[in-house]
Design brief:
- The chain is an alpha/beta fold.
- The chain has helices spanning 13-23, 40-53, 83-91, 99-113, 133-152; strands spanning 2-7, 29-33, 58-62, 77-81, 116-122, 155-160, 163-168.
- It has a seven-stranded mixed sheet with strand order 3-2-4-5-1-6-7, sandwiched between helices.
Length: 172
Amino acid sequence: MLILVSGGSGSGKSEFAEGLMVSAGLEERVYLATMQVWDQESVRRVERHRAMRAGKGFATLECPTGLERLEVPAGSAVLLEDLSNLSANEYFSPQRDGAFDRVLAGIQRAAARAELLVVVTNELYSDGVRYDPETAAYLELLARLNRAIAAQADGVYEVVCGIPVAWKEVFV
């Protein structure tokens, strides 16, 4: 089962996604951490997410790039946190070409092996800001990935102010 969870910064999407993982009742829970730690702000974000999932039985796998090569445990519950970071890491890497295909292949491969794959992504399109061409191209990549994953997903949720809104609902 594949579930996509979207929302803005601080919306509660991570908490909702972790709740889906725990309520699924699968014993083996894997957290795919995609953030590359560059500065103190990213250190604080990583620590906040670690604290949020403490005691929930997650094994953490660092996966800032190369999801298409990662072997997730068969039959497990996998939480990818998050697609925005993974996409940025792939897009802004020296191997920029093919970022869409690599990320989508990684999602599909993980979904085929896992019993449940929950992908967290960010809503980054409603700020009305004009971005430089490189950033705009990254945002377009993320939008294409969000659409492709939503089309394949069994469930799609948007979290707004801590409230999940089901756009494509599945009962876990």
